[in-house]
Amino acid sequence: AAGLMAGKRGLIMGLANDKSIAWGIARACANAGAELAFSYQGEALKKRVDPLAAQLGSDIVLPCDVSDADSIDTLFSDLGQRWDGLDFIVHAVAFSDKTQLRGRYLDTTRDNFLTSMDISVFSFTAVMQRAEKMMSPGGAALTLTYYGAEKVMPHYNMMGVAKAALEASVKYLAEDLGKDGIRVNAISAGPIKTLAASGIGDFRYIMKWNELNSPLRRNVTTEDVGNSALYLLSDLGGGVTGEVLHVDAGYHVVGMKAVDAPDI
Ligand code: NAD
Predict the structure, then answer these.
(1) Which of 17, 19, 21 to mutate to test the pocket of ligand 1 (most atoms within 8 A of CB)?
(2) Radius of gyration (Cα) for the chain, nearest Å?
(3) CATH number of the domain that 223 lies in?
(4) Is residue 257 part of a domain?
(5) Alpha carbon distance 220, 249 (integer Å)
(6) Would you say the CB of residue 41 lies under 6 angstroms from ligand 1?
(7) Is this prediction's pTM over 0.90?
């Protein structure tokens, strides 16, 4: 893929550490020649993100809390000081109260419902409202979703409802921005052990289940997600928008666990 992203500038949102899906995507894009900028949430993360950005040759590391409109405005005005355009954007941001990522969806509080929807769903739209002004035809945006949007997965609860709304917003954004030649897609990633995922109840068991029952009989890596992201973010994906691409070792196509049937 060397050179595939040469001359393209991209903003990566949601890098927390080297386990982050954003890191897999950033590495794939940088290896393909892209120039990158990063946004991080909160001062505590800056010291982790700075060296990772430097590893990929980037010194553009800017704060942004997506729950704060002013903070998103500041991010884009700061980015505009450095770059006169933006070719792609990666939104790898989500949040839900982890005490509610177990137990029943039915027990979701109004506060957590609204916060989860704000940070995990509206933020993508809010970011695209600003990004649109810096992007030109050929631009691409990508967000991250999970199978829990489509089917009930244990403990995913409010995040499943939020991801369903996020996937719907990908389609509406694809229509609105398609007129400007900007593509909007999502990757539905299989379970990966990241900081955010560690908040989900029984996550180790969910990963094991996925490994045993997906067609490829393994879990995906952030590198797998990065490589598929490269397709959607580069001109290789030029005809693709409004799509949710499953990078999940095929888990979403399985209707029944593969077992040796008992004699009945
Ligand atoms: P991660 O913890 O590495 O990344 C989550 C990021 O969200 C962090 O960088 C965090 O700082 C950021 N964030 C949270 N609230 C924010 C706010 N208010 N403002 C700005 N940033 C904020 O975990 P990850 O698993 O790499 O998550 C990235 C995306 O991938 C998320 O959308 C997640 O739902 C999605 N996803 C993860 C998995 C998985 O199994 N790990 C599977 C499918 C989809």
Answers:
(1) 21
(2) 18
(3) 3.40.50.720
(4) no
(5) 6
(6) yes
(7) yes
